[in-house]
Amino acid sequence: MVEDVETPAVDVTINQIIEPYRKVQSIEPETAAPNVTVKPAEATPVEKSKIIFAHAKPGFDLKSQCERLARNYDFVHVSVEELLRESGSVVCEKLGEEIQSTDKTYLVEGFPRHIEHLFAWIKHMSPRASVDFVLYLEHEGEAAKEAGDEFVIKTMPIIGLYEKLGKVRTVKTGASVEETFENIKAVFSDFTEIQKEPKIDAISL
User: Fold this and answer.
1) DSSP per residue, 79-134
2) How many whole angstroms separate alpha carbon 131 and alpha carbon 51?
3) Computed from CA positions of residues 93, 98, 101, 102, in that sequence, does the dihedral angle turn out positive or negative?
4) Measured between alpha carbons, how far is residue 146 from residues 9, 61, 140, 171, 184 in Å?
5) 129-138 β-sheet, strand order
6) 73-100 pLDDT, tens per residue?
């Protein structure tokens, strides 16, 4: 059972968030004595599971687009919808049980939702899972306007953090499901579409 992570203060700076991430992603050389040159030992590369976080404001059918992406690109679609009211450590514990393969790309829908989720992810998952990028579907429908306040306050700062790291791909939603999916595919040009009808890997937590 993983430990709970204390929820950080609201005014956490980006450096406070990034610093623990940097520490788990790199090995710092040992401090050398004065005038002594020490060659750091070469770190053995650690293979990690590949992760894409997917976000959209409430009111948009993110699940359907994630399912289509999983079909097109042979991703594993992971939905944490039923766990979003749980603490970050509980969500990450469940994610850790499902995210095991380093040969697959996992498309995680609607996570991290707020700062405590992000801190839990950095603490528990960063050593073995690497976030390729965040897919953000920019949707401005009426439902999004009515239900989006919490998203703007809690989730947009997370997307903003990854944007500062150069890890956000923003897509404007179209007038139809098909148009939206074509827009999404345009930012997945570095992934290979599969040609045959695949078996869909989907996990709901």
Assistant:
1) E-GGGTTS-HHHHHHHHHHH---SSSEEEEET---SHHHHHHHHHHTTTTEEEEEE
2) 5
3) negative
4) 27, 15, 10, 21, 24
5) 168-172, 129-138, 49-56, 105-109, 76-79, 201-204
6) 999 999 988 787 788 889 999 999 999 9
3-state secondary structure of 73: helix
Q: Tokens 């890997």 map to which residue? A: 201
**Which residues make Cβ contacts (< 8 Å) with residue 55, sequence separation at least 6?**
62, 110, 134, 135, 136, 137, 155, 159
Q: What is the pTM of this model?
A: 0.74
The confidence score (pLDDT) of residue 46 equals 74
Tokens of 163: 């944007």
pLDDT band at 17 (very low <50, low <70, confident <90, very high): low
Q: What angle do CA 96, 16, 139 make, to 5 degrees?
A: 65
133 contacts 144 by C-beta, under 8 angstroms: no
pLDDT averaged over every residue in the chain: 78
Q: Are 54 and 137 in contact (CB under 8 A)?
A: yes
Angle between helical axes of 115-124 and 156-164 (0-180°, round to 10): 50
Q: Can you say whether the dihedral through the CA atoms of 160, 107, 144, 146 is positive or negative?
A: negative
Q: Angle at CA 95, nearest 5°, toward 80 and 163? A: 75
Dist. CA 8–CA 190, nearest whole Å: 35
- If one compares 5 and 133, the residue with the highest pLDDT of the two is 133
